[in-house]
Amino acid sequence: MNRSVFSVALGCALGAVIAAAPVRANTPPARAAAVVPQAGAYAFGCNPNGNDCAGTFLVSGQTITALSFRPVRCVDGKVSASPSAAIANRAFSYGATVASSVSVPVTFQASGTFQTSTGGSLTLRYEAPGVECAATTSTHTFIRRDDARLGWQGWRDAGLAIDGAMDLDVVVLPDGRMRMYYGLGVGGSNTWRITSSISSDGRTWTPESTNLVGRAWGPCDVVRLPDGRFRMYYTPSDDPDLAPGQMRSTRSAISDDGINWTVEPGHRLNPAAFTELVPSGGIDYQVSHPGVVRLPDGTWLLLTAFSIARGFDPKGVSSRDHTELIVWATSSDGLTFTARGIAVDSRNKATFDGMVGSPDPVIWEDGGVRAYFWSAGPQIPNDQKRYNGIMVTTFTGTGWTTPRPVRTSATFPGAAAAALPGGDPTTAIFNGRMFMYYGQFSGGHQVSQHSVMASRSYKVQARYSGGRITAGISAGSGALRTDVSTGMRCGRGLCAATVLAGTGMWLYATPARGYRFTGWAGCNGTRPGEYPPPTPEVKPRLCWVSATKNITVTARFARRR
After folding, report:
1. What would the pLDDT profile of 73-100 be if each residue is shown by its tens digit?
2. What does the alpha-carbon distance between residue 233 and residue 254 come to, in Å, rounded to a whole number?
3. C-alpha distances out from residue 257 to 214, 230, 252, Å
4. Residues 72, 205: one domain?
5. The CATH number of the domain where 55 resides is what?
6. 227 lies in which domain range?
7. Tally of structural domains, the chain
8. What DSSP assignment string belongs to 282-302?
9. In this structure, what DSSP letter does residue 287 have?
10. pTM value?
11. Does residue 328 lie in a domain region?
């Protein structure tokens, strides 16, 4: 008998024996092979390259540690949990309330199961009631991966975009490039005009020629229409056909190529549509700085600043002589808009002091709508102790969440806000990254800066012996003053502060009794143009610093003889 015939015969014989044998009642069931999680790094919600993950964690033995994830609703930055969670029967679950990397308290719950020793599924739920971020739940597959990186985690300053530009707007073109529309000159003056530049990377821009030069058009927002054309919503510098008291409205123009524009008749939004805000007594009012986005259901959503030519409190509580709020409206065709109400109400002293403006809505990666805007913040006579800068609110479908800061000291607890942290923001998702462009004063004139997602700060240090150092943010009223908002702390011959990238500061040296000041070393900044020239006795003691890197300066003192 050959081997194969013998094997078949043996198998049949054994089968007969097994079939005839009685089955014992206490025979234990067969056990599945145990799943033992492999130690190392894991990631979930990643793209194929593993460089844009929703979250990561570590496995050591039967323990989960170092869970980090990036929220995609309401909260920028990264959420990291230090507690650990035990793995029992292949499953784990734990939660906590922690502060995100942009100082927003986030409550989360994560639970998962290992299907294999190197992978499984995870459900993540989080909420941030402090910024009106409702609970959201997502389910992911996780795998063992050492090279994974989290995706967007906050804004990172990326430097100058276009010198001299203000009131920016960016649109992504069908060919994959970006076009920026912006103003040159002073809004509303005879020198104001809109022009454009083109970019293939979002960083380097080449000017274009348009038929907009010389037109009396103010800040604009350009959108691509479903038929491939472009529509520009703009604020006319001169709007003569409005009723008395109505200074400006929102109008529009149409273009096939985004370069040559034809005005569309009529108003897209008349300020009189917001009847609850129309002032009495012949006070001027207007809408300006429109921002428009098309929602997934085809509805056009418009936000704009609503300005009233008086302070919001007739008793004089406001330190401003005008009030600016943000209002919103909707349209089914992008031409006829219906007023819906107030999106951001600035009529409070503590937060906005009557000033918010330049809203720019954007469809976020989770499909929701965020609107970025700016506010100068509450005013204190002869100073700006707090400068809000750029802020954001989220659309709920029927209204807007409480605004939260984007580029202020709240990003880095205990750090100073940038001297002028930016205004008139516009955003665009381009080549898988979020770009933000905003105006900023530098050297006495307007420039456009830009940021990409992820934030950055620098240390400013001043060494001294034989005197003392005072410091301030080089912005605001133009008067030199001690400004505790720099976060500068001094002791044992060293002053130090952590500030956002791009912050301008001034340092002032005062000699101690029996000492004289001999000079500064290491100062890398210059006096901003809005500051008056210091007196001859003050000028030598001033050191201007620009926080474009970690910087250390030295104040030199010598004993008097």
Report:
1. 666 668 888 778 999 999 999 888 988 7
2. 9
3. 19, 7, 15
4. no
5. 2.40.128
6. 155-455
7. 3
8. T--EEEEEEEEEE-TTS-EEE
9. E
10. 0.61
11. yes
